[in-house]
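Wed. Picked up where I left off yesterday with Translation factor Sua5. The coffee machine is broken again, so keeping this brief.
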Amino acid sequence: MAEFIKIYPDKPSEAAIAKVVKVLQNGGLVIYPTDTVYGLGCDITNSRALEKIAKIKGVKLEKANFSFICHDLSNLSDYVRQIDTATFKILKRALPGPYTFILPGNNNLPKEFKKKTTVGIRVPDNNIILEIVRQLGNPVVSTSIRDEDDVIEYTTDPELIFEKWQNLVDLVIDGGYGDNVGSTIIDLSEHEAVVVREGKGNIDIL
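Structure written out below (tokens, as returned):
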């Protein structure tokens, strides 16, 4: 059964963050708060953990559209091809914030995603997940736990999330009530910005 720990977003406890990081390093799956809905994630470098998430979501790993949660834009060059100044300015304006940006992937993508030409990048405005990623030292692969058929409270109430997911994951973080609106997805992989999904993030940043 999963562990359930409380972390306060205003001042995340060092010890609690270290505990989460250890779970991720050991190949565990973690549910954590973001600036939108709660997310399910694992260490980007752990193949077995990636397979587990794909299985839970019912998708083939190489076809999965998971996003990468980065601590800040300095992680970009690890996985993203060089982008132009206009694109970078949009990212600077929007992040950290409730957006997922689809960007052109480079050759350093983890082997599970080598066939993909693009990558979804997230830098959420949430201290808990940003601190986890910072201490982990590399991005977390993320997917939302939002289920269109689900009772809406599951996405917002950490206790209900724990109840539902406790046998599927290794740790659930209670970071307070989440939102029930997903991130705004914007495709910047081509010359024109394309809004794929309007969510919590305002598209006026374009």
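Quick read: The CA atoms of residues 37 and 206 lie 23 Å apart.
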